[in-house]
Amino acid sequence: MSDVLALAGATVVRGESTLLSEIDWEVEEGQRWVVLGPNGAGKTTLLQLAAARMHPTRGVVGVLGEVLGAVDVFDLRPRIGLASASLAERIPPRERVSDVVVTASWGVVGRWRESYDRLDHARAVELLEALGAGHLADRTYGTLSEGERKRVQIARALMTDPELMLLDEPAAGLDLGGREDLVGRLGQIAGDLEAPALVMVTHHVEEIPPHFTDVLLLREGQVVAHGPIEITLTEANLSQTFGIDLVLEQHGDRWSARART
Ligand SMILES: Nc1ncnc2c1ncn2[C@@H]1O[C@H](COP(=O)(O)OP(=O)(O)OP(=O)(O)O)[C@@H](O)[C@H]1O
């Protein structure tokens, strides 16, 4: 199995609820995917499967050539960069920003080992600089604004030089300037041929960065459509996904949507 992600009939059931139903999805090297869908569609659950942090109830989930259930997930997880709100909540507010980034190489949150390689520290600062957050390296995480925290989380997710990078609503809670800054930076990462395969979850087409290649539209745990953005992100598909008649517009390499009036 050479795909970055290969899901076949992936289904997640909790109690009476089916969170994901029969998902077939393949992500290949070099692809940059956006996962779009309304609240409760199952986007975070899908990302949890991709992050090897959840197993499917039924079906097969392949991650970086390994099948979940037949691999030690602790070997797999360092190969995956994940930035999510639930992970961010676990970062101690008093942690120094450069430590928040560098501890990713140990797969831990919170600095509990004293000896990090100097090279790790240099890389952490380099990544922070690439995200426009180099000047924050010596601050404590709890003192940062939401936008600054998002940039630190992304630097942290890149720290292990992952083969797959997963971003769960990276622009949530940002003001317009912060969102545009982050979308621009994510666009730069997406345009870098050396960057890992990317999967970004969002509710808003306005947050799709330039250079993203593919989209998966999810509604009530089921795939509405998936494939190259240019042919899959249509008014009809988006309207079906959100259950509302939408006008979708493309402006160069960005998108916007609003209800049809
Ligand atoms: N352990 C659980 N038991 C039952 N239902 C659950 C469980 N975890 C999640 N759900 C439900 O599964 C559905 C999908 O949740 P998920 O967080 O994946 O959606 P989402 O698309 O990421 O939503 P949002 O955009 O609001 O973050 C939701 O209706 C949620 O309430």
TrEMBL record:
The keyword Chloroplast does not apply. Keywords: ATP-binding, Nucleotide-binding, Transport. It comes from the Bacteria. InterPro entries: AAA+_ATPase (IPR003593), ABC_transporter-like_ATP-bd (IPR003439), Metal_Ion_Import_ABC (IPR050153), P-loop_NTPase (IPR027417). Transmembrane segments: none annotated. Belongs to the ABC transporter superfamily. This is Iron ABC transporter ATP-binding protein.
